[in-house]
Prior knowledge:
Blueprint: E1 4-14, E2 28-35, E3 37-42, E4 45-50, E5 53-57, E6 65-67, E7 74-83, E8 92-95, H1 100-116, E9 118-119, E10 124-126, H2 133-150, H3 152-155, H4 159-171, H5 178-185, H6 189-200, H7 204-221, H8 226-232, H9 238-249, H10 253-272
Antiparallel strand pairs: 1-7, 1-10, 2-5, 2-7, 3-4, 3-6, 5-8, 9-10
Helix pairs in contact: 1-2, 4-5, 7-8, 8-9
Amino acid sequence: MHFKTELLQAGIASMTPIYGRESSYRVNRIHIPLEGKAKYRDINGEKILSRGSVYLLINGFTKDLSMFRDSGYSHIYLDFVSSPPLLSREMIEIALDENPYINSLVTLTRLLIEEGGRNLDSRLYVDRDCEVFADLEEVVKIIMLYVSRNYKANILENDKLERAVRFIHQHYREQIHNSEIADAAGVEQRQLIRIFERYLQTTPYRYLTSCRLEEAVDLLRSGKSVSEVAELSGYQNETAFRMAFKRIMGASPSAFLNKENQERKSICQIQDL
């Protein structure tokens, strides 16, 4: 499977929820227990997470992850999205004593976070402004390359969905419709919608919109104007882009960027205290 990954954030913490701009069904986590135990429920039932393994939690795992009552639990987390998305609901476990290479990456990950993380709410937190962020992003890519080679069956759960999302990622800048996506996947339109709802809890149209807005956010961050962003991310005009952005992101493009800048300044101020 050839896909790209984007690290959203990383850190060392006790059990914490996801924070970030991505909708929860797209977020994956490389989860590394340090102390204590936690519970995770996937399609095969409840499992115990404990030190000595690396766990890949896929697609909106937050509601399925919990800690034991009256027991402490700390872990390393690397939260990321992938394009195309990972398609399984089954947790992947990598035993460290059987994989010395992954074990060395875990050690490196902890050192990077301890060296470059920021103290925030009793946790070490790393975002894209930290010096070690790019290094951690490379760790995610290496681990996911290992996973894609050794656990392919767990990730590629539906070939038709994979063909559909690949088509969307290749053509989201164009004016494409469900009929074209269905043709690329080799299914009827009604079946296409059922597949998206089953595996990604969304529709093809909403998924297409999320791809366009992800691209739009990156373009806005790069300093491009709203009109340029609208054209480059697949919208027919600036008005349509502004309406879609505000509907999904909850703010206008300029307000969204201002909020991000304020949050970044707040984190830096906390670090300086």
